Amino acid sequence: MTDTARKRPSGRAPDENRIVSIETGFARHAEGSALIRVGGTEVLCTATVEERVPAFLRNRGQGWITAEYGMLPRATHNRGQREAAKGKQSGRTQEIQRLIARSLRACVDLKKMGERTITLDCDVLNADGGTRCASITGAWVALAIALKKIKRSQALTAQVAAVSCGLTEAGAVLDLDYLEDSSAKADTNFVLTADGGIIEIQGTAEDKPFQESEFFELLRLAKLGTTRLFDAQNHVLETA
């Protein structure tokens, strides 16, 4: 394949992340907050602590982490109707917020939280691909800040970040933007931990089945990409 054929729309190298920035304290009333920017995608992640747990956890001496996800009407090219106006959430919204919650519960010792609930709200301000991955990466920062504020930092057991990878006309690439995501031959999302653990992998072939060797190349790219995201998370927490 020629260099021209392999060129990505953004001009990035196949193993290059989009520019990432994380700003903490954006939501001044929340126990923890992080505004994460990944290329053209921007997500506001907030962590709210409540001194109660769902009914099924009462008197069990442990906490709970849940998540809600949503997109502002003009986060995309065309205005989307607010789901509150529709009276129900889409299947996509429910699937993403469950993914965020699962990912963050996997990095916390719920018993060390005590009987309290932390709700992670992830609101997409601008979408340019990878909103669920940016939400997980930013929500981890908001969660870490909230746990520190309530003096439960010891409950945090792992560092978590997420990134998308895919098979495109440029081959296997890291951190898909919208143009790549909308035309990818295969699209995958990796939720990984800083110590080499895997929390979740979502992968779909859009054209034809992809091969094991291609999957392991996507995994290699994801490990590289999340390493950079872990660095960004650590930097913002050290300087917050």
UniProtKB/TrEMBL annotation:
InterPro entries: ExoRNase_PH_dom1, ExoRNase_PH_dom2, ExoRNase_PH_dom2_sf, PNPase/RNase_PH_dom_sf, Ribosomal_Su5_D2-typ_SF, RNase_PH, RNase_PH_bac-type, RNase_PH_CS. The keyword Plastid does not apply. Homohexameric ring arranged as a trimer of dimers. Its EC number is 2.7.7.56. Residues 17-146, 159-223 form the Exoribonuclease phosphorolytic domain. Keywords: Nucleotidyltransferase, RNA-binding, rRNA processing, Transferase, tRNA processing, tRNA-binding. This is Ribonuclease PH. It is an enzyme of class 2 (transferase). It comes from Gluconobacter kanchanaburiensis NBRC 103587. One of its GO terms (biological process) is rRNA catabolic process. Phosphorolytic 3'-5' exoribonuclease that plays an important role in tRNA 3'-end maturation. Removes nucleotide residues following the 3'-CCA terminus of tRNAs; can also add nucleotides to the ends of RNA molecules by using nucleoside diphosphates as substrates, but this may not be physiologically important. Probably plays a role in initiation of 16S rRNA degradation (leading to ribosome degradation) during starvation. It catalyses: tRNA(n+1) + phosphate = tRNA(n) + a ribonucleoside 5'-diphosphate. Belongs to the RNase PH family. Phosphate binds at residues 92, 130-132. One of its GO terms (molecular function) is tRNA binding. The keyword Transferase applies. SUPFAM superfamilies: Ribonuclease PH domain 2-like, Ribosomal protein S5 domain 2-like.
